[in-house]
Amino acid sequence: MSAPTDTLDRRAAVKALLAERGDLLVISGLGSSSYDVFDAGEHASNFYLWGAMGGAAMVGLGLALAQPKRPVLVVTGDGEQLMGIGSLLTIATKQPGNLSIAVLDNGHFGETGMQLSHSGLGARLEVIASGAGIGNVSDIADMAGIERFRASLRDLAGGPRLARIRIAAGEVERALPPRDGTYLKNRFRGHLGFQVK
Amino acid sequence: MDQIAVHQDDATGTDWPVAIYRTLKNFGVAQVSYVPDAGHSKLIKLSHADADIKTTVLTTEEEGVALSAGAWLGGDRAVLLMQSSGVGNCVNMLSLMASCRFPLLTLVTMRGEWAEFNPWQIPMGRATPQAFEIMGTTVLRLENPDDAEEVISAAASLAYDGDQQVAVLISQRMIGRKKWTRETH
């Protein structure tokens, strides 16, 4: 078994995924996924995780259940999703139609020096998601696949869905979103029309 | 085949899980997450039966911490139900709540303190208050079934209105002793 050798550029993939985002609510996982989402365009309905390793999909679930009429997209990495692998089972029990998870999979733990991850050693996240009970899964290796996935996000009855997106493992220059968690939270809630205390 | 079967004793006459449920309803709680737990079983059933509460079973406790953060982002108030044995699993995820000042209300049934027969439950039970406190979570105790409404109400105000992380530790004395019997099939 070896690391994926596919070469989708992560920044281009995420930028395409977030094009014409409309009312999409986005949670990004610790590390490069947050830099990718920030790089694609700062937005009040982005909530970047700077910690909480393994928790991105569950933050997405809580949000999706609270906002069933809005599409919710979690953008995270293979390492982050692997740490919270049980959350795929939990999400499947709720079947939130408006929740989508994009796992940027380079087969490596990029934030910590590019060690091979479980997915780089053979684990298939989309197969695991399918086994967990997430019916709508895909394995994306080209921009046409990204485009199809993007078009599906608006279907609030089509989820939960998980896409494994095969990205290149190269280093990308960091683009750092705001780090103040309270600011990000208040901005997000304000965007949804909740009063900030 | 020999099997160990567990039965729960009713510790008190006061229906404190119902009192907790009513208090949570008064605070508009819209999401409940839980890991399986005998002490919370009645509250879990009430929650599942309530169409206005989205009830989520977790594979591990820290999922419920992250779920509570997402719920709040979307305008829902959430409660996490667990047992003291799972509190240690939450320590890292509690930093999410502290960093963003997300409200957290968690109700924890205690093991390892009152008439505990299983020594494996004792270390985490003993460490439970400190495990919360090292992460800045406020710890309240619910010792008496008659105080359920007052204590849960105080905790909910502190959490949802004060943007604090609050754990209510529910005394093992309120849960009742486990009766263990050997059954032969």
Terminal CA distance of chain B: 6 Å
Oligomer state of the chains in this structure:
heterodimer
Compute the separation of the termini of chain A in Å: 52 Å
* Count of distinct strands of chain B: 8
Main β-sheet of chain B, in a few words?
A: 6 strands, parallel
Number of helix segments of chain B?
7
Q: What is the number of beta strands of chain A?
A: 8
- Described by the principal axes of the CA atoms, the overall outline of chain A is globular
Overall mean pLDDT of chain A stands at 95
Principal-axis shape of chain B equals globular
Q: Please write the string of helix (H) and strand (E) elements of chain A.
A: HEHEHEHHEEEHEHEH
Strand sequence of the main sheet of chain B, in spatial order? Answer: 3-2-4-5-7-6
The stretches of 5 or more residues of chain B where confidence is low (pLDDT under 50) are: 1-9
Protein name (chain B): Phosphonopyruvate decarboxylase
Keywords (chain B): Decarboxylase, Lyase
InterPro entries (chain B): THDP-binding, TPP_dependent_decarboxylase
GO molecular function (chain B): carboxy-lyase activity
Can you walk me through this structure?
- Chain B: This is Phosphonopyruvate decarboxylase.
- Chain B: InterPro entries: THDP-binding, TPP_dependent_decarboxylase.
- Chain B: GO terms for molecular function: carboxy-lyase activity.
- Chain B: Keywords: Decarboxylase, Lyase.
- The complex is a heterodimer of chains A (197) and B (185).
- In chain A, helix 2 (32-39) links the parallel strand 1 (25-28) and strand 2.
- The longest helix of chain A has 11 residues, at 56-66.
- In chain A, 36% of the residues lie in helices and 18% in strands.
- Chain A has a six-stranded parallel sheet with strand order 2-1-3-4-8-7, sandwiched between helices. In chain A, strands 5-6 form a two-stranded antiparallel ribbon.
- Chain A starts with 9 loop residues before the first helix and ends in a 6-residue tail after the last helix.
- Chain A is α/β, with parallel strands linked by helices and 197 residues long.
- Chain A is globular, with a radius of gyration of 15 Å.
- Chain B has 185 residues and is of the alpha/beta class.
- Chain B is 39% helix and 26% strand.
- Chain B contains seven helices and eight strands; from the N terminus they run βαβαβαβαβαβαβαβ.
- In chain B, helix 2 (41-48) links the parallel strand 2 and strand 3 (54-57).
- In chain B, helix 1 packs parallel to helix 6 (148-161) and helix 3 (61-73) packs parallel to helix 4 (91-100).
- The model of chain B is unreliable at 1-9 (pLDDT under 50).
